[in-house]
Amino acid sequence: MIGASGLESLVCVPVLLPLLAAGVKLAIGGRLRGLQSLISVVTLGVSLAVSVVLMVAADTQGPLVTELGGWPAPIGITLVADRLSTLVLVVSSAVTLCVMVYSVANAYDDQEHDAPMAIFHPAFLVMVAGVADAFLSGDLFNLFVAFELLLSGSYVLLTFGGTEFRIRAGATYTLMALASSMLFLIALAVTYGATGTLSLAQLAERFATLPEQVQLLVELTLLLAFAIKAAIFPMSAWLPDSYPTAPAPATAVFAGLLTKVGVYSIIRLEALLFPVGPVSTLLMWVALATMLAGVLGAVAQTDMKRMLSFTLVSHIGYMVFGVALSTVAGLAGAVFYVVHHITVQTSLFLVAGMVERRTGTTSVTRLGGLMRATPLIAVLFFVPAMNLSGIPPMSGFLGKLMLVQAGLAAGGWLPVTLVVAGLATSLLTLYAVAKTWAKAFWRTPRSEQVGRVLESEEATGEDPTVTTTSLPAPLPLSVAALIVLGLSFTVLAGPLTALAERAAGELLAREPYVSAVLERPR
Question: Which of 174, 303, 332, 391 has the most CB atoms around it within 10 Å of its CB?
């Protein structure tokens, strides 16, 4: 059995191993593509195994801390693995592994001959390292570095293939990311000037001594920076125009993970640095607007990927609602919903990618009859869609139930209003995904409708025909594995809920985190 010191030395593996593998793959270049794929899958598999070990250790022994280079906090880079960070790290590692298998099977090098696959794999691993670094970061500056690492990898993935639409979407995404980074840097400058440190553990002790105006300034600036990254309304307009243009694996991991990094940062900072304050009411209003604006946008869409992008925005509102409650029950619901949503949203975007590969389009006005032609894809879309909608007894229902109970327990007209809005959002989500499924999979096959809509299609300049191609077997298998992972949250709802509650309690207690970092034996 590995001792405590051995376990602490593993904390850096999910960050450093993908970076090392990315360097090796860049050295290999375009040669030995089979080796490229093998390195990626093995790297992500090892990261997943290490993350599971860290999660078990953090839950039983308390937060694990490693200091890179041997420099103690607050001077050096500190990585902290506690219940929250390891839980989301395990789920993100499992998701990125499934997405990598999907991308290898999808063989983009066969579809986009000008797209350098030798760049896709390293960029993906750099992005994975940035996600892990953000989850484990023990100071604000390293969190900023993690976001920049994410940006460097995600921009390459978003513009992969160099098409006009992807370059335009990538430019929008990058401008928003840079705006967020500028706000983050401003918050870092103010924080360091006021406290003399950027260590989260030290900030948890020192923020309480600052004037209320300074606390509020830092909190609002950080929240605005993270709200852009998390696509919280009204800073969410960029997402539906950016994500759908990327390759399916990139879109899936963007939707499943990158927005959750922003949500995770909000959870971490609100619980650790600003446990009580006037911003909670503002967060509730923001959560309400995010839920309703996102789901109304989803209802209006006729493209599968854009519909999913708007549901992504709306369901971020559930997580912000849990954070805004500032209670153990609310935070536990938010943590549970983050874990659930990562798997479900990623699954749905991967299925949309299969539909696009099979038919050449994701426009539901041009699709139809896929239930008869590809029943497996129809089922793979239907199951996570129902989970996203919160159909009992799936994990989506359980996460919403936790938030509803937390909102009702908090009392007051605003939390109750959010509960009602959450239920309405769930029903509208069901309507949006059911409408999409019915049009794309259930109705009369598109080939039988061409004659009836040829005139309208020609008026818009679209090709009225839909071509079909076969799918490699690993594609549905990788998606099925991800869907099974999401369904397992229902089977393991008891242990997972208990772990989420322990993580929330540890967050609000703050002392375990602070002690683990500042009182660590040297």
Answer: 332
Q: Cα(133)–Cα(126) distance, rounded to whole angstroms?
A: 10
- The neighbour count for residue 209, using CB atoms within 10 Å, is 9
Q: Span 55-79, mean pLDDT?
A: 84
Q: Which two tokens stand for residue 76?
A: 């050096």
Residue 303 sits at φ, ψ, to 5 deg, of: -115, 135
Q: Hey, which residues does 68 pair with through a beta bridge?
A: 77
Is the confidence at residue 468, as pLDDT, over 80?
Answer: no
Quickly tell me which residue has 């500190």 as its tokens: 78
Write the DSSP assignment of 256-313 as a string of letters.
IIIHHHHHHHHHHHHHHT-SSSTHHHHHHHHHHHHHHHHHHHHHT--BHHHHHHHHHH
Residue 282 corresponds to which tokens in the numbers above? Answer: 């503002």
Q: Is the pLDDT at 116 greater than 60, yes or no? A: no
| 144: three-class secondary structure by DSSP | helix
The yes-or-no verdict on residue 431 having pLDDT over 70 is yes
Q: What does the chain come to in residues?
A: 522
Copy the structure tokens of residue 225.
């920076």
- The secondary element (H helix, E strand) that includes residue 78 is strand 77-81
Angle between helices 493-509 and 474-491 (to 10 degrees): 70
% helix / strand / coil in the chain, to the nearest 5? Answer: 80, 5, 20
Let me know: does 51 contact 15? Beta carbons within 8 Å. Answer: no
Residue 303, both tokens: 């493209």
Tell me the average pLDDT of the chain: 84
Tokens of 153: 């990898």
Please answer whether residues 263 and 336 qualify as being in contact, where contact means their C-beta atoms are separated by less than 8 angstroms: no
Average pLDDT over residues 36-48: 90
pLDDT on residue 128 = 93
User: Are the CB atoms for 340 and 489 separated by under 8 Å?
Assistant: yes
**Cα(308)–Cα(317) distance, rounded to whole angstroms?**
15
Task: Give this prediction's pTM.
Answer: 0.89
CA distance 2 to 269: 31
φ/ψ of 80, rounded to 5, equals -125, 125
SS3 of 387-422: HHHCCCCCHHHHHHHHHHHHHHHHCCHHHHHHHHHH
Q: What is the pLDDT of residue 459?
A: 40
Q: What is the distance between the alpha carbons of residues 198 and 192, in angstroms, rounded to a whole number?
A: 6
Contact 349, 103 (CB under 8 A): no
Amino acid at 12: C
